[in-house]
Amino acid sequence: MGAVNIWRDTVTYDELTINERQKTDQKFSEMLDKVRRGFPDDKTLATLSERVFSTPIEKKFKILQQGGNAPVCLFPKVDMCKEFNETMLANLPSPTVKIRATNLIDGTGNIHGLVNGALGTVQAISETRITVNFDRITDPCEIEKVKRKFMVMKNVFVYRSQFPLILAFAVTIHKCQGLSLDNAIIDLSENVFSAGMAYVALSRVRTLSGVHLTCFNPKSLMVSSCSIKEIN
């Protein structure tokens, strides 16, 4: 039995008819609906092509950041995120501080009511805690180390203690699900490898003006035929 059938046969649901994320940009909302259903028209494709920028990604990131609304980069693959995060880290001005006040971070644990994927900025660091200003949360949060236990073989365990934070100048499209962003730099190239990926990335952004594409391949707008059948 496929996942779509399991969902239909075992789950009752209420249909949400109001798009809260893109409610201030109706044209963008309508465009996303075409992408979601797998029928982007020529105007939609042309509009997305117009959102492609030619400047280096690091420079584009800095321009948007200086405008007061730092973007998040959404990439299809983990290695792309890793490479960009390391580049951005290396480009920070201070050569002596390992975790700097301008590091965008991603909380990887449910702390202070936060959930996985919460984004913020490191403000201070000590040996025992890191102070973070999370986006859309008024008060700074003190993040302490967490301890985890792993079994490597029968009756043999390894304990690891670390801060549940990672660099997040860039995150994978898979990991961005649930986020709402004012600005995003998105890769919609041949690196997009799964149905629905492009839609997920684009629909994280509140307005079309907040969409900044490193490149755009129309073939990235792939959809799942099973999902489309269920929608219809």
From TrEMBL:
SUPFAM superfamilies: P-loop containing nucleoside triphosphate hydrolases. InterPro entries: P-loop_NTPase (IPR027417), PIF1_helicase (IPR051055). It comes from the Eukaryota. Gene3D superfamilies: P-loop containing nucleotide triphosphate hydrolases. This is ATP-dependent DNA helicase.
